[in-house]
Amino acid sequence: MNIHEAHAAEREQICAVGLSLHQRGYVHATAGNISVRLGDDSFLITPTDACLGTLAPERLAHVGADGVQLRGDRASKTLALHRRIYAADPDARCVLHTHATHLVALTLAGVWSQPDIVPPITPYYVMKVGHVPLAPYRRPGDPATADWVHDTLAASVAAGKPLRGVMLDRLGPVVWHRSPAEASAVLEELEETAHLWLLNGRSAAPLSDAQIEDLRQAFGAVW
Fold it and tell me: Is 86 tagged catalytic?
């Protein structure tokens, strides 16, 4: 069995999520990237300058646990960022980055706060996404961004409240979860919440502490 056959399911999942995100306008042109961590701690990642709507399973980059590319087209320039997220959170199995319109617009208009780019205005945002901090602006692919995300995520994991995403100022969200489908769901809920908050003129009141505590007790929400 060749390496493409061995990782066929993961390759198909990446391509399916990429196509879905592209068709629904969550990514455009060649923006965005997706990776999946494999069982041996190597991973698959979309190629640099690839359109997520036209990914080919056999052309995805296969990268070793040491960061050395093994096969496929040249890996995305965000490779270091993906590797640092996996290093900080052992439960992360998929990392997804896009330039989602309303989230980028939010950074231009002004986020709610640095630790939370939007307030907890809906129960599903609290339950499915959680806290999303704003990373300082740096050029795309800057290694300093990977360091910042790693350190922020590691601190949250140590505190028992792991993050599911961060927002890169003027660039886009980076989210992670146990699978491409779950990471995609986090992205969608985050983008929808940003859209709702912008539509409301960034003035909607957050859920109360008592309402958030009720979500913790009823659904195990981590907030």
Answer: no
